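Just curious. Invent one:
>
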Amino acid sequence: MTSHRYDQILQVIGDRQPACGSTTVVAVDGPSGAGKTSFVAGLAEAAGARVLHLEDVYPGWDGLAAAPPLIAGVLETVAADGIGTVPRWDWEHHRPGRLLRVLPTRLLILDGVGSGAAIIRPYLSLLIWVDAPTAVRKERALARDGGTYAPFWDMWAAQEAEHFTQEATRQHADVVVTT
């Protein structure tokens, strides 16, 4: 990935004021397998940004709804120039793990489903929606996570559908990217 792929988005980010204290927060949301994490990796490299991956925070396969309030709590602390903390989810042992610390920074990118939820939006300077056709998304997600994700695809997809319907995330996005 070359940085010029992100030039327009970097310009938009540069034109936005921080909404989380002195930290500019960009959320990259969209359904599983859409290409969010790859997109975020390139954007973070091009922008010199830190990244908070929501997959580190979801409390288990049925934990999508629990993540946005946790992230909002982290951002509330960061906005007050503090160090936000949230338990990292230990996927191997199915329990909360060590604390994940989020420091105020120039630019923070949130990567994951739910990062554009209404409870988080007051802290966002930019919301990017990333999407792809369902068949492509499923193929990518299962190739990425193999047999670990396969038994949970339908359950997670149902949570996503409910979440996105309630939150109208795509409709609130400032930028839409199709991969």
